[in-house]
């Protein structure tokens, strides 16, 4: 890994947060507070275990009150939370959308009241966000796809049979991930005479539905698959569960994303061939820095723009890192996950992978 990438991957620490309904990190929301709306706790563990504590810590360090709530996958609740925050006097709204249409309605309402909004992690198509903070999501997909190609080559597969288990069709990030991995895997299939057996999105990133969809894919393929390009670890691990039932785990290349404890353990055991690490602490800090600058009337620092279909949104874009068994240690060394959690019961595998 290059020094440049390592510098861009911030040192982070994971903290487990229990989700009970709509959780507010601040007991009282004073004038000038920042409202943060997270999407759910089911599609990925990251929203509550990583984003919430990192955002909370960033605002506390800046001396700014933050009200962080979770919409629990409910678009009506998302809108209600936003309305309540605006009524209480939020000066900035940071949001991870559930879909573009519902988030755009919130952004337009906030804009009419003079409240700037920040798209966090997910871009709201045709929205009116003042800023966007995320990773280069096409690059995330390319890392996923390259990991799959490398795995197929390592296994000596001549004419690979592959499926795409895509993220939610209402999440623009899922579209970008697929754009990335299809740009790598597609040409490889063409050059090898391989086959894309199935290509299907999973509504709302629902892991249970993802498992069902993959089981149908495997049946359609007659039990003969060489790789599953899955858009995140939740979907990848759902596919692994099906593969285990059919005694195919470890024999089929499976991608992931998010570098969760379960995901990293699966990489070490060989159930996942590769995943992608995104330094969420740096992402949270980037969003907090923008919000604090807006509250204080200062110029916010960005490093690019992102076209949302209507305007080019000033953006802070971070660099993702591809992870395989050979560099899981990077995520541990960076403090994003704890060795004790990842290595529990698989100490020998961790030692072999150079995890100290």
Task: Jot down its keywords.
disordered N terminus, 7-stranded mixed β-sheet, globular, alpha/beta, Rossmann fold, 4-stranded parallel β-sheet, 356 residues
Structure description:
It is a single chain. The strands form three sheets. The chain has a seven-stranded mixed beta sheet with strand order 2-1-3-4-5-12-11, with helices on both faces. Helix 6 links the parallel strand 6 and strand 7. The chain contains 13 helices and 13 strands. Helix 3 runs parallel beside helix 4 and helix 7 crosses helix 8. The protein has two domains: 173 residues, 3-Layer(aba) Sandwich (Rossmann fold); 172 residues, Rossmann fold, CATH 3.40.50. The longest helix is centred in the middle third of the chain and has 21 residues. By secondary structure, the chain is an alpha/beta fold.
Short description:
This protein is an alpha/beta fold and 356 residues long. It has 2 domains: 3-135 and 279-318, Rossmann fold, CATH 3.40.50.2300; 137-277 and 322-352, Response regulator (Rossmann fold).
List the helices and strands and how they pair.
Layout: H1 3-8, E1 34-38, H2 46-62, E2 66-70, H3 75-88, E3 92-95, H4 100-112, E4 117-120, E5 131-135, H5 137-154, E6 161-166, H6 172-192, E7 195-201, H7 207-220, E8 227-230, H8 233-245, E9 253-254, H9 261-269, E10 275-277, H10 280-295, E11 304-307, E12 312-318, E13 321-323, H11 328-333, H12 339-343, H13 347-352
Parallel strand pairs: 1-2, 1-3, 3-4, 4-5, 5-12, 6-7, 6-8, 8-9
Antiparallel strand pairs: 10-13, 11-12
